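can u do me a favor
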């Protein structure tokens, strides 16, 4: 499922980010902790070049904690310390969530200071740019750092439409930008992960195909969470059978008793997005072993 959802405001946002990039000291890229690689925009890597970057794994309270820890190590290991000629600048990584606002306010400015040499003199402030894909929590992070609501937030993609600049109590200047994707997402697995996580509007995806991808992955990786959430007596053998069973147990039936697969798919995807299934990661860094006793293939 290759996705092409690139509304006009993203073209404008990309241009604004490119124009502002030279004046920035550090880039804060917000990723979805449940899928750090899929939510890592190649356009951002291209535009930031050698500028240092903080990878913020947001929504970590919804992700598998062991997998998140592995991702933090992997992201920093990909970009070695200064002096070792990293391909894309020094990177530090941090995991945050909506329940850790005070820690985010403390640690993110600290990490910026570690990456940027001290600036002396009038008007010499550290400038940081927050970037990321749609619906990943950039505006929520801005509000957290400012300790008040200055950016509009929502549970759907493309809430932020324009660039805005704020100044923290420390004097650090931060700009928030609309979420952008890349023009065409050819990686089918990444497309599905972005769709399951809510980075792409439901109107731009085949809902049942997305739910089938999610169901198959959950069966392989987190079967015990499915059993607990939907009170299953036994685990269905296929993704389609799981969705049908969810539909029956949630009363998603058409006339004649047939399961409404769209409604059942909606329940599974939104249970995941809201964290009602439990803490789930949609992908793992290279080298991380799959959970014991669970087959890698469907």
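np, heres the sequence
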């Amino acid at each position: 499922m290759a996705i092409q959802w690139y509304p006009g405001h993203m073209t404008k946002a990309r241009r604004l980010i490119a124009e502002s990039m030279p004046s920035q000291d550090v880039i804060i890229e917000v990723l979805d902790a449940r899928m750090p690689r899929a939510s890592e925009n190649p356009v951002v890597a291209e535009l930031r070049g050698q500028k240092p970057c903080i990878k913020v794994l947001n929504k970590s309270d919804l992700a598998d904690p062991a997998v998140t820890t592995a991702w933090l190590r992997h992201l920093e290991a990909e970009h070695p310390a200064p002096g070792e000629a990293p391909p894309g600048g020094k990177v530090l990584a941090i995991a945050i969530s909506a329940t850790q606002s005070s820690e985010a306010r403390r640690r993110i400015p600290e990490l910026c200071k570690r990456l940027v040499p001290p600036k002396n003199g009038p008007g010499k402030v550290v400038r940081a740019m927050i970037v990321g894909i749609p619906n990943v929590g950039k505006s929520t992070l801005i509000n957290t750092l400012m300790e008040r609501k200055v950016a509009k937030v929502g549970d759907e993609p493309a809430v932020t439409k324009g660039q805005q600049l704020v100044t923290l109590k420390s004097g650090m200047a931060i700009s928030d930008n609309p979420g952008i994707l890349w023009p065409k997402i050819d990686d089918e697995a990444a497309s599905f992960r972005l769709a399951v996580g809510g980075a792409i509007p439901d109107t731009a995806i085949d809902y049942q195909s997305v739910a089938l991808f999610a169901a198959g992955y959950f069966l392989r990786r987190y079967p015990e969470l499915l059993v607990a959430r939907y009170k299953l007596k036994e685990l269905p053998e296929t993704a389609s059978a799981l969705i049908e069973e969810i539909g029956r147990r949630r009363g998603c039936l058409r006339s004649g008793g047939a399961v409404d697969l769209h409604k059942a798919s909606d329940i599974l995807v939104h249970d995941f997005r809201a964290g009602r299934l439990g803490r789930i990661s949609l992908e793992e860094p290279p080298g991380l072993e799959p959970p014991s006793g669970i087959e890698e293939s469907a």
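Confidence is low (pLDDT under 50) at residues 82-87, 153-160, 292-298. hope that helps!!
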